[in-house]
């Protein structure tokens, strides 16, 4: 048995049958106890007093194992409640006489008792009718309306037994609900942690793929640099290689953060989305040209936003790679941006065949792939996470009416964002 299962078994809610009876007439209190805890099979009867008229009722003795404490004054009742809380054995309920012949009545007593034990239920009993339900509710407050009940004398044995059974069962149900909520919270935490580890393992499978892409950029531009005679052209190629290395470092950092319990500091800064997108295009230039993919970026506009440069380059490069795979014979890649209300919308569209409608809703699910062994199924899922979790934006993918798939990245504008 797992440690969690053992803990759950040990913490199962034990029924609470502890009842406090407070009446300034000891005989009345003792009579209630005899009903709840009969000593033999004879019908228990309440002792009569100047304040009570009992309706005898033929009833079998209670089979409930109630534990009853008798007190006669408000101070004794409050002391008993405090003691029960200190011992970790609270009362489920109490029977409280309204007219206690003391400095406070039963209603004020319950008000003070609930301040000590908010989970305590109360049943008021009295031979008088000077306090109606509404007045009790006003004194105890609307927030405690479900924590008390009211019966008049003369009352029957059946009424006492039924109130005790119902109210103690209600106490148990509330504690069971709390217990279940706590356990559910613990289990959800364990599931989330397990999902996090699973995601880390899955991302580990895709790291080689990510690095394969980056190494292709590095090797391609290294070959270009070697064939250059112009120092400036060589320098430009080497700068692209350095940027690819920086992006690779960012990928590794993101992978390590999956198991970090402390959130890493954000590297979100004010960046020009157009410049970041063009940097991603520079990284992909060699592969796009090699696969005969023409890039149309006439609709790409400058806009400064708070974004993570490396994360957004990772998103855009992944989208370019997906677009390239969608056009194995070559084609056209459209990159554009526009302002819509309080958002910047960056759109990337290919001229391929589009995505089958039956799988379109699933393409951003983790581990879902249509590329077989060549795909990790994490590219679009990671893109969606970066856009929506890290940047508070929205990631949408759909088929364009003119053909091909289109990804729209919605990034929120903030005060101070400015057009260039």
Approximately what portion of the residues adopt beta-strand conformation?
15-25%
Radius of gyration: 37 Å
Class by alpha and beta content: alpha/beta
**Count of the separate structural domains:** 2
Widest β-sheet, arrangement of strands: 2-1-3-4-5
Count of beta strands: 12
The helicity comes to 40-55%
Structure description:
This protein is an alpha/beta fold and 420 residues long. It has ten helices and twelve strands. About 11% of the residues have low confidence.
What's the quick description here?
This protein is α/β, with parallel strands linked by helices and 420 residues long. Helices cover 46% and strands 17% of the residues.
Topology (elements, then pairings):
Blueprint: H1 3-10, E1 18-22, H2 26-36, E2 67-71, H3 74-86, E3 93-97, H4 106-116, E4 121-126, H5 133-140, E5 148-152, H6 157-226, H7 231-257, E6 269-272, H8 273-290, E7 293-299, E8 304-307, H9 309-325, E9 331-340, E10 343-350, H10 379-390, E11 394-399, E12 405-412
Parallel strand pairs: 1-2, 1-3, 3-4, 4-5, 7-9
Antiparallel strand pairs: 6-8, 9-10, 10-12, 11-12
Helix pairs in contact: 3-4, 6-7, 6-8, 7-9, 8-9, 9-10
